[in-house]
Amino acid sequence: MGISIAREASRRGANVILVIGPVDERIDYPGITVIEVISAEEMARETMKHFNESDIAVLTAAVADYTPVSSSDSKIKKEDRDMVIKLKPTMDIAAELGKKKKPGQVIAGFALETDNEKSNAISKLRKKNLDLIVLNSLREKGAGFRYDTNRVSIIDKNNNIEDYELKPKAEVAVDILNKIETMI
What b/e sequence results for 7-32 when a residue is b if at least 16 CB atoms lie within 10 Å of its CB, and e otherwise? Predict the structure, then answer.
């Protein structure tokens, strides 16, 4: 969804900074500055660096909630014992941006939920000080990751909920940006 939203925002005349993790798709589109990152830490750093000068932040990434405490630059050889990987929480980028949000800035987040979908998405919207949240469901065939289509619900900070049918991600991006435009 992030690439589709970046393309649509650029098509509408926005100067877009796309902070993106590893993807197979080549992103070469006028008006989009691409910043490639590998880790959740790099994504957080780059997102925070550009947030103050942004009018709108759309956070589509499903960043890892945890990361290994330590890593190895070389192969870890197999041994005849169990291995334990200690994890630490990553920065919650959406929550941190929500704390730094200035009047006039709009933050849109995404929620991928499997249970109590709408109530969990609304909770996330409130807790992170977002202006709207786009709810994805893993229950919908043809939606979400690995598909060119998606089915979403857009929930705004005033509890307005708009449910959309399954459609190409480029059209979902139009719906999301149309909603954002009504908020600025």
Answer: bbbbbeebebbbbbbeeeeeeeeeeb
Secondary structure of residue 48 in the 3-state scheme: helix
The count of residues in the chain is 184
pLDDT tens digits along 55-103: 999 999 767 889 899 888 899 888 888 989 999 999 999 999 999 999 9
CATH tag for 2-71+81-183 (out of 3.40.50.10300, 2.130.10.10, 3.30.1490.20, 3.10.50.40): 3.40.50.10300
Q: Where are the beta strands (DSSP E) in 1-131?
A: 16-20, 32-36, 56-59, 66-68, 87-89, 106-113
Whether the per-residue pLDDT at 134 is higher than 70: the answer is yes
Give residue 144's pLDDT. Answer: 66
